[in-house]
Amino acid sequence: MTGMILDGVLMMLLVAALGYGVRLERKLTALREGQQAFASAVTDLNAAAGRAEAALASLRASGQETDLLHDRIIKAREVKAQLETLIARGPAPAPIAEPVKEAPPARAAAPAPAAPPQDDERAARMAALAERIQGLSAPSRGRAPGGSNVAAILGAMTANQSAKQSLNRARRSLDEDLFAA
Description:
The protein is mostly helical.
């Protein structure tokens, strides 16, 4: 009888060990799933850190482009001021009046207004300047010194526009990188 009691106690212990093993297996399965989720979270974090590094590099490049753009704007303003000074000091717009000389009947009617010619002359000079900048007419050779400034202003304006476009592309790229996640 003692043998049967011992066998019963042994069976009870085996059933308890089996229940404990099942419970332990469930906990280990949950731990493995948590470990896999943690590994994927670490991978995602690593990818986000890489994107942040790329965004910072892009931001630094944008900062450098901004500095370059600022320098170009300052130079363009200086050239603009020089050009305005040259226009103000420039001689009367004789080359603009030359095409009018070719048409004598129109010239005969022009001397009547005496007071507004300054406004007309200034408007004509500004129109000639706009044509030069846009490249619609070739600059005359006998014009005021500083004709090369027009080309410099046009070059500065073109460089300014391309720098703005580059800066806008960098900003869009930075925004996409920052808000992608």
